From TrEMBL:
This is CoA transferase. Signal peptide: none annotated. One of its GO terms (molecular function) is CoA-transferase activity. Pfam families: CoA_transf_3 (PF02515). Keywords: Transferase. It comes from Pseudooceanicola nanhaiensis. It comes from the Bacteria. PANTHER family: SUCCINATE--HYDROXYMETHYLGLUTARATE COA-TRANSFERASE (PTHR48207).
Amino acid sequence: MARLPLEGITVLDFTNMLAGPYCTRLLADLGALVLKVEPPAGDHNRARRPVREGHSSFFGHINAGKKSIVLDLKSKDGLGAALALAAQADVVIENWRPGVAKRLGVGYDAVARLRPDTIYCSISGFGQSGPKSMRPAYAPIIHAASGYDLAQMTYQGGTAEKPANSAIFIADVMGGLAGFGAIQTALFDRAVSGRGHYIDVALLDAMLNLLIFELQEEQAPSPAPLRTYQPLRTTDGFVVVAPTSQRNFETLAKVLDHPEWISDPRFVHTKIREEHWDILMRLIEEWTTERTSAACEDALLAAAVPCTRYLRVGEAMADPQVLARGSFSTVTDPAGSYLVPNAPFRFAGFDAPVSPDVPGLGADTASVLAGVGVSTETAQN
């Protein structure tokens, strides 16, 4: 097997929740030795649903491939063990509220005194400075505070009475990816210059980076109606169609047996078509409502018109494209095995799948601490 890019890099992982653990799992996928520090009671995600026979697959999803170390950071010896590990780590990452790492004694300044070239990454909701930096923040809070939720509400055509319920943690995944990318950049610069770096990742900034059109529209509003991509009803579900280019539109008009749309003053070119987008979508839906989702997809894709039916998560997991790319790996804990998606990128010449092993609580404490001359009993008490 080819050498993984991050082999030889040690990461001391003080993270919990989702953004930090997702970031460090990606580092582990690429070969880094990730030492996950847990309190004596364990990461609270070990009890997060879905739980099978006492083991959380949610926890396993974002922590596979790491080593688990139990330390009581509030004790003198536990802190000493953590700092001994930090002195040997290339990367230290935490996602507590700003100031907590410093209060515990494992903040950037304490670590940099031991290893000046350390790469230290802090992930938080609002960032390490500013008037909102100390606010408690989870992904749904950031979705609302960034403008994302109300922007989504405006795209519902006036039918929504309030922002949609939230359960998919976009900010956490985006923040984790931001941390992952920034750490690679810092490691590269250290290899060139020898410098260490402190990285401040804010979930708020990650969400703002999603709102490319919305941020610019806010600064220079356009009076024209906005083109939105809408679910179109079929006999057994929904499809989405995206005839964005002139060629796509003209091809779609022919497939739907409405060539007259091509010369219709409402649709004749892209700018005019966008002003009448809702009308166009309603006309397309008259066609889709008479067909199954699969039939709509087949007919439009055969003509190279962008279209897909809406899939349930389980259907997407079994999709031939996902299977062909090998998008999932199997991981195993004492309750059995389950699928976890690989990192969202591929390298030519080698694979970087998720490690199949989910660490048991404190399973690696003794062996890891022995490497820095600390006894397990001392560090945990």
